[in-house]
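Comment thread on ticket #2218

A.B. wrote:
> Attaching the input chain for the structure job we discussed in standup.
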Amino acid sequence: MKNVIVATWRESGKMEVFSSLKGFLEYYPDYNEYTITNYLTRKKQPYVKGELHLARLPFTGRKAAA
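C.D. wrote:
> Ran it. Output below, let me know if you need it in another format.
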């Protein structure tokens, strides 16, 4: 099972899915890598700051039924 990074923006309700934290940090370089890694990896809890809610969620990669 693989994990994905899900970013939810509270004000707009927009959700973005990234295959890795590195991808998120490349797209949003203003966020601190060490702080986010501390929350998601060591504390095993979502990172919530202002309008951003960032969580690491399991992803099985199953295809939708037709």
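A.B. wrote:
> Thanks. Noting for the ticket: Residues 33-42 form the longest helix (10 residues).
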